Amino acid sequence: MLFLGLHVRSSPFLWRAIPFFALIVLAAACREERPLAAPNPTASARVDAPKPTLGKVRPEEQHFADLAEKSPSSAGFYFDSAGRLIVVVRDRGDDALARSAVAEFVQGISDARLDTKSSLIQEGQFTFGELARWRDIIFDEVFTQVRGVTTLDLAEVTNRVEIGLSKSAAASLRASLPSQLAALGIDTSAIIYQVEDPEAATLPARSPRPAALSMFAGTSIGDRVFWDTLAGGIHIESNVKQCTLGIVADAGSVRGLVTVSHCSEDFWGLDSGPMYQPWDYRQVGSEYLDPAGWGCGFLTLDECRRSDASFYQIASTIPSAKGLIVRTQSWAAPGYGSGSMIPDTSRPYFMVDAVDNDQLVGGQYVHKVGRTTGWTWGQITHTCKDVESHGWPNTRRTLCTYESSMYVDGGDSGSPVFTPYGDGINVNTDVVKLNGIIQHKVNGPPFRSFFSKWDRIVTDLGALDPLAPAVLSTPSLSGGITVYYPSMSWAAVSGATRYNIFKDNPSGQVLIGTVTSTSFSDGNANVLQYTGGTEPTTSSKIKYYIYAVNGSQKSARSNVLWYVGASGSFNLTINGPSVVGPNTAGCGYWSAEVSGSGPIVSYTWSGLFSGTDSYITGTVPTSGGQLWVVVVDNNGKQTAYLKTITYDPNNTDNCS
Prior knowledge:
This protein has six helices and 44 strands.
């Protein structure tokens, strides 16, 4: 009788055979929808979980599905390399519906380099519903069944389903797959094939290991440098791989570090193995959470999981900094190699203030800090992309990873991926959002990297708290209006060296300044009313808040100040006034600079914004004075402009 074997993990080194009939039972069981088991530090049993099926929307694509509900022929959206919002629509009659629906979603994206206020239409050939259905069929029948298929993605940018093929199998699969897909009812013109061989961004452990450069402690995030206090972005090493520490976090009462599972001795299986920093003379922790995947693929011989991540309990004797990521001196853009490896002593850390559990959008800027290539950034190029690694017979498939143009190399696996507030490139903030950790790379050019998203990590590992604690006292803001600019002040916070100022309005959350003083005025806003801590009901509401920070500590968010924003242009020009009635002063010149007296005048203005319905006019007395021009738009919102008008009797330019 013929028997087939299945690798079942009960320890990192144990294989046992299961009769063929048992495989059939397992194959059926993997299709049942059962919840992921709670993390168990003493076991690493395989966990069944649902795989993508027809009609079931992936959580990361819910915004595309919601868009399709309102605009049936839509196929998603993304930001292009210039930061423009692109909405993909098949039927041009759906343009207006699609634009409106997308505007609601992207208004929460806080990146000044991305234009969330306007959009362009890209004509697509296929709808989201069509592409999602075909992608799911390919997942079940091809991606998990055919050797040599390495990646799978519903690509909103190309409006196609993209299938990655290993270099060794590409030629034969390009020839054979089209007929197989056609037989499955898939429109083969919706398919793009590309050669893609993702590989783990790790380095093997070296033996013998050199001595650590303890004399240079903390002077680099890279190889052999000792760090007394553990933080995100530094070198760590297991018995088998060199990697990067992702983030220090708490799993309930257990303090630990998050990094990639493939850095452990048993990829997707709890081995309780050690983690070192910098080398094996100093063990800093032991693996605590690393559940097995669920059986998928042919006869469930392969494993699938939502993330490539594991959690190591940090030894009680090892100092650690929860929620901190080492900030180096400078970044490198895509195509420019590695960023700085040297910590910025004046601003040594990024502090995680939030995790980005929203759907990330193609084109958003993301950053990482890793032990090999330092601080680099890039734009997300593919969302929710399935990736294969560790080919047969130990195939692992990580579902719904995110691909970006960030440069990474061997040893960067585990690097924290984060989004800065405000400007996606020129980072002037101390607090950031955590997105996930680096797991794979594709060598270029162009170089590409893949990361596991944070919400998928916690689905696999259980609840984790990666937020930096609020150590400094919370600032207390008071506010007002200076002319028509929002202004605010606060008492100095002990231990703080600077303050991050944030503005949150319908265009998203934006870092608008970092100051060392205890007051701030937003010269780029025009407001009509200050409401203090009471949120206005108008859609033009704006709120401000701050964080007190120093090199490694932050406060909680301050209280919020609310304002009613004025609409329209802030560049209204009041033109030189004309004399009305008898010129009682003889002659003279009106200006906003020179004092004097003269006749009553009228005035005009230019620079009215689109949508202006009416405005108020008036006169200035002969002695000059302040002139208020109030513009009213079609929605009844008012914008007030102040101009001081004076008269120079000695100027004869306007004599009549």
